[in-house]
Structures are given as structure tokens and as C-alpha cells.
Amino acid sequence: MPDVQARTQTALERVAATALDPGYAQASAGRPPARPGRRRGSRRARRNRWHSLAMPLALLLTGLLTALTIRQGVAALPAGERLRARLSAEYESRSAHRDDLAADVRELRSAIADLHARQRSADDAWDTATARIGALAAPAGLTAARGPGVRLTLTDPAAGPPADAGNPRPTAELTPGGRLADHDLADMVNLLWSAGAEAVAVNGVRLTALSAVRAAGDAILVGLSAVEAPYVLDAIGDSAAIVSRVSAAPVTMRLRTRAGAPPDAVTIARLGAVTLPAAADPSLRYARGSGS
């Protein structure tokens, strides 16, 4: 037993004696480290030297970057101010241009409203004029007319007039053969107008205020159309008044009693409905002042 205890104590003493790391022991004893220890120390030394060199380089680079940033900021400040001033001037210019355009829009809208008002006024005037034209178209002969009226027929003699002293008109005033002249036809047309006729046509040719009854050689023209006997005058109006007025008119008596006049020289009849065609479009002329 004492031997076992002695051996156990000797083993514990060796463990206690060798518990510290040999490197610590050598460092505490002031002895140089073993060879592996020297390699770790050289690496640490090199690392310390690199750290000592890297720190100043990092500080130098940091200072350079800071100085460069400050310099760029200082250099960019006037450019930013110029850009801000240019943008401000551009904004002011665009704002003024926008205001001018808004004023133009208001002016144009006012002009458009004025044009619309003038157009409405012109449309009203056009409608009024169209209504007046429509009301005056029938009396002017520009449209066909239909209504109650009369038919007056003038017949020429088959031969020349006999030499009788009872003829109220001198023989010199009669056309050769005792035929009706243009003024005889014109007298009957004027009689119809004065008797209250609203529309008159001679052999289907509508008369207007611009129509003329005249002679062209041996022919009689109504306007530009030649007509021949028998002359049929259709008139629209109060048939009773027209028949009464025409039957008692001196021109009717003269034509009935002219030399060589046939028994049916002048006949008149009432018609319940008379249809007259429209006249040809007139060729209007306008009077102009001197110097115009």
C-alpha cells in the first residue's frame, strides 16, 4: 500500500509539474522559444509590420477621397446654381407662353361665339328671304300656278279685211290681211292684268314683269318665244270679275269689230281650274352708280 501511494503521488507531481504549456514556461523562464514557436512569432511580427504600414495607407487614401469629394462638391455648386437659374428662367418663359396661349384661346372662343351668332342671324335672314321668295315666286312667274280663272282666245281672219267704212280703226293700222299685231296682243294682256289676273300665259308661255310682247318681222314674240294665231290667253284670278271687265273693255270691242274680224274674234270662258307653267329663269341686271 505505501508503494502504491508513493507511485500515485509521484504521477500527480509530474502532471502538476507539466500542466503549463512549454511555451509559457519558456517565456516565463526567459528562455528562447522552441523552433515552432519562432515561426509563429515571425508571422506575428510580419502581421504587425503589415498592420503598421496599412493603417497609414488607409488614412492617406481616406484623406485623399475626402479631399476629392469636397473639391467636386465645391466645383459642382456653381453648376447647380446655373442649372437652377436656367430652369427657373425656362419655367417663367413657359408660364408666360402658357398665359399668352390661354389669352389667345379666350379670344378665339369669343370670335367663334360671335361667328356663331352671325351665322344664326344669317340663317334667320336666309329663312326670311326664302319665305319671301316662296311667297313671291308664283306672282313673279318663277313657279307653276294653278287656280280658277278664264281663257281668252283671239282669232285672226282667214283672209284680208274687206273694204268697209265701219272699221273703227284706220286700214293703215291693220297688218296685211287684217291679222292681229303685236300691240293688239299686248293690249289684251294688259287688260287681263288690270282686271285682276294673278298669272297670265300666252299659248303656254308664262308672262312675268320682265316679259315683252313684240314683233319680229311677221312673227309675234312673247318673251323670246314665237306665238301664232289663234292666241290663247289663260289667266288665273276671280273669273267673274275678269269676264265682266274684259267683255266691256274698249280693246275687246275694237278687236271684235275690226275689219275682217271673224265672229269668234274674241271669246272668253270661265275655267274652274287653270294650270300655268313656270316662266324661264330671268336674266337679271343690276343698276350701278356712276364711277362704281
Low-confidence stretches: 4-8, 160-175
Write down the overall mean pLDDT: 79
Helix content: 40-55%
Q: CA-to-CA gap between the ends? A: 165 Å
Shape descriptor reads: rod-shaped
The strand count comes to: 8
H and E order: HHHEHEEEEEEHHE
Helical segment tally? 6
Q: What kind of sheet is the major sheet?
A: 5 strands, antiparallel
Radius of gyration: 67 Å
| Oligomeric state as shown | single chain
* Strand numbers in spatial order across the main sheet: 3-2-7-1-8
Assign the structural class, choosing from mainly alpha, mainly beta, alpha/beta, alpha+beta, or little secondary structure: alpha+beta
Write structural notes for this entry.
The protein has six helices and eight strands. It has 292 residues and is an alpha+beta fold. The strands form two sheets. Strands 3-2-7-1-8 form a five-stranded antiparallel β-sheet. It has a three-stranded antiparallel β-sheet with strand order 4-5-6, with helices on one face. The chain is rod-shaped, with a radius of gyration of 67 Å. Mean pLDDT is 79; it is low at 4-8 and 160-175.
Keywords:
292 residues; 54% helix; single chain; alpha+beta; 6 helices; rod-shaped; 3-stranded antiparallel beta sheet
In short, what is this structure?
The chain has six helices and eight strands.
Summarize the SSE layout with pairings.
Blueprint: H1 2-17, H2 22-29, H3 35-140, E1 145-154, H4 182-194, E2 199-202, E3 205-206, E4 213-216, E5 219-222, E6 225-227, E7 231-236, H5 239-247, H6 250-256, E8 266-276
Antiparallel strand pairs: 1-7, 1-8, 2-3, 2-7, 4-5, 5-6
